[in-house]
Amino acid sequence: MLDFLAGLYRTHADDLATVIDGQRELLADGTITPQLDDVEAELTYLLLRHHRPSQVVEVGTFYGWSTTWILSALRDNGSGHLQSFDLVDHVCGTVPKELSTGRWTFHRGDLRETVEKVPADTGYLFVDADHGRRFARWYLEHLFGRIATGTPTSVHDVFHLPRARPFTEGAEVLRHLERSGTDWFTSSRAAAPRNLRALDAVRAELGITGVRGTSRNPMIFFSMP
Questions:
Q1: Cα-Cα-Cα-Cα dihedral of 58, 33, 165, 38, to 10°?
Q2: Interval 121-167: pLDDT, tens
Q3: Taking 90 as the threshold, does the pLDDT of residue 31 lie above it?
Q4: 221 in the Ramachandran plot: left (φ > 0), alpha (ψ -120 to 50) or beta?
Q5: Quick check: 171 and 133 in contact, CB under 8 A?
Q6: Cα→Cα distances 7→107, 172, 203, Å
């Protein structure tokens, strides 16, 4: 996996550097509160460039930091549409129109009531919403069950510590993946410092510096079981 990701960094280094510059400008405007750390945001962009999904589903937008990274990848692919789901619509006032026009649909409401709007042909699933155990158990059954096997998927806020905290979303997702024998990847500083060091070495080689300068990177990446 590390070799694969390093290859994506090298393949898309120039485009990624341009996106990073654009994200720095968004951050400087003060309208978006960022959630993703640098490497996990970059990996999200790179995986979207590689897989070129026609439909992306984002669960949890907050002020749109992940949304803008995803939309940047779709723009650079020249194809694809993002379907975002959240209880609040802060994101509607922060995502630049030049990114969103023609490639973004926002669904406001409880996903438990709007899950039927998740496209059957979802080609990438990004989850960063309610991190509670109860919601995780719901979406593992009702959302994951709608997504095709093999679909690239990521879940945020799993590894702030060397292990997922008990009774949390992260623990539920990891248990689900273990039961199905599904491998996953993380660049979490707490849980997989060697992975993060390896990716940081590639980034340094390519002259890529992150937008935020933060490096906890607790997200996990896997293919839908």
A1: 80
A2: 999 999 999 999 999 999 999 999 999 999 999 999 999 999 999 99
A3: no
A4: beta
A5: yes
A6: 35, 31, 11
What is the distance between the alpha carbons of residues 145 and 142, in angstroms, rounded to a whole number?
A: 5
Identify the pLDDT of residue 26.
94
CA nearest 7: which of 216, 225, 217, 205? 205
Q: Are 96 and 68 in contact (CB under 8 A)?
A: yes
Q: What single-letter DSSP state applies at residue 80?
A: -
Beta-bridge mates of residue 155: 127, 220
Q: Using CB atoms within 10 A of its CB, is residue 210 exposed (0-12), middle (13-18) or buried (19+)? A: middle
148 burial (CB, 10 Å; 0-12 / 13-18 / 19+) is exposed
User: What's the gap between Cα 81 and its chain centre?
Assistant: 15
Average pLDDT, the chain: 97
Q: Two tokens at 206? A: 């390519």
| Percent of the chain's residues with pLDDT above 70 | 100
Locate the DSSP E strands across the chain. Answer: 55-59, 81-86, 104-108, 124-127, 152-155, 184-186, 220-223
Question: Cα Rg for the chain, rounded, in angstroms?
Answer: 16
What separation in angstroms does the CA of 109 have from each of 61, 85, 100, 112, 185? 12, 7, 19, 8, 30
- Supply the pTM of this predicted model: 0.97
